[in-house]
Amino acid sequence: MSGQAKASDKVLTLDEIRLLADALRGVGSMIERWPDYLDRFCADQCASVGDSPMAHTVKAAIMDDQLDTKWNVGGKDVLQKIRQLSWESRRTIAVGVVEFWERSADGTDEEILHWILEEINTATITAKTKSTVVDPRPQDIRPAVWL
């Protein structure tokens, strides 16, 4: 594979990335104030909200600001996709969104959205590929006849 994701393999679309950038606009200031915020924000689940903090934030933005309508994407689909992403992929999105808003004044912000898109889709496809070639029977638990 050339590093380019096929349309059918894409986890997120560019408009879904735009929705995420819109929904996560204030994340940068939180990260600046609290050094451990980024790691907690990208976690799988938070007991106080019963969801990943990122998904919770995006869900609130979709409900309050109708971002799914604005960006012409399925809000429930976006939320499901974020919940299925790895911590590393959610972190890539958060860091990318911060960079996007920092660059919005100089006109290079669109490049960041494309970078996020490529990073997330490539990382997810790579993870899927790697997981299909791993022997499901670890060496230490295989029956002796396989050794």
What does this structure look like?
This protein has eight helices and no strands. By secondary structure, it is mostly helical. It has one domain (7-128). Helix 4 runs antiparallel to helix 6 and helix 7 (87-103) packs antiparallel against helix 8. It starts with 13 loop residues before the first helix and ends in a 14-residue tail after the last helix.
Spatial shape: globular
Largest sheet: none
- Strand residues, percent: under 5%
- Topology as H/E string? HHHHHHHH
Question: How many extended strands?
Answer: 0
Mean residue pLDDT: 80
Radius of gyration: 18 Å
- Contiguous low-pLDDT stretches (5 residues minimum) are 1-8, 129-147
Task: Count up the helices.
Answer: 8
Domains, number: 1
